[in-house]
Amino acid sequence: MLQCFPIIALYHYRIVALDIHSFIIHNSLINMDKPTIAGKAPLPVELKAGETYAWCSCGKSSNQPMCDGSHKGTSFVPKVFKAEKDQTAYLCTCKLTGNPGMCDGTHKKLE
Ligand code: FES
């Protein structure tokens, strides 16, 4: 079983404490590219059942929290998902969530 213990990571000139589980989830051990922190709070988005959405994972999109193609030339790809029902979803803008696309509260660890 994966052990969770604190580590320190450098994110865009900020020291952020993360546990090893979050670190692995964000592919930081495999992908050394770091996403741009586009925001420090989730954005509410009205999702429509059956519609397909592409969440920006690189943080460079000017259409946050959705992809605008700005990841081209990076190792990031958008998280494409289909809404199962009409709902207001709170999508991650910090790009550090452990549940790609959806805010999981990780932004609260940012200063
Ligand atoms: S905005 Fe990224 S986890 Fe909340």
The helix tally amounts to 1
**Percent of sequence in beta strands:** 25-35%
Instruction: Report the bound ligands by name, code or SMILES.
Output: FE2/S2 (inorganic) cluster
Low-confidence stretches: 1-30
- Structural category is mainly beta
> How do the strands of the widest beta sheet line up side by side?
1-2
Q: What is the helical fraction, as a range of percent?
A: under 10%
> Over the alpha carbons, how many angstroms does the gyration radius reach?
14 Å
| Topology, number of strands | 6
Mean pLDDT: 82
**Main beta sheet:** 2 strands, antiparallel
Walk me through the topology:
Blueprint (H helix, E strand, L loop, with lengths): L5 E6 L2 E6 H6 L17 E5 L4 E4 L23 E4 L4 E5 L20
Antiparallel strand pairs: 1-2, 3-6, 4-5
FE2/S2 (inorganic) cluster binds next to loops.
